[in-house]
Design brief:
This protein is α+β, with helices and mostly antiparallel strands and 135 residues long. The protein contains 3 helices and 6 strands. The model has no long low-confidence stretch (mean pLDDT 89).
């Protein structure tokens, strides 16, 4: 069975304030819909089936077409952050910084997959991320 993937988004308005508690509709390519509300910090957290490469998100009267097909390489910080977020090891924003939350998520991933727990992304960790994520 393929691992679950997660869509984790932080949504803010034009002033930088979170879109707290706003309703949303996420439509997947097969036409299935996920409806919910953003949390108090404007986060959306939805499990999506493996292989889904795009979706449509309607929130705050705006539609966003999401492209989930292009990922940075797994041995870059951005690639690690994207994959960890998809696998529900939430690191927060994909910002390219190996900060505290990213290191903690890497450590959890390493521990869960029997890798040496260092908080750094070595070749074994990057390869396991590719395997678990499927890309």
């Amino acid at each position: 069975m393929a691992p679950a993937r997660w869509l984790n988004l932080e949504l803010k308005d034009s002033t930088g304030s979170p879109l707290s508690f706003r309703s949303y509709v996420l439509t997947l390519p097969d036409g299935s819909r996920r409806e919910g509300s953003l949390d108090h910090e404007g986060y959306l957290h939805e499990e999506i089936p493996p292989g889904v490469e795009g979706a449509s998100l309607l929130v705050a009267e705006r539609r966003f077409e999401l492209d989930m097909s292009a990922l940075p390489e797994a041995d870059t910080v951005e690639g690690v952050q994207e994959r960890l977020n998809h696998l529900n090891y939430f690191v927060g924003r994909t910002d390219g910084e190996l900060g505290r939350f990213t290191r903690m998520a890497v450590e959890r991933f390493q521990r869960d997959h029997g890798l040496e727990v260092t908080g750094r992304v070595d070749a074994a960790t990057a390869e396991r991320l590719r395997q678990e994520h499927g890309a």
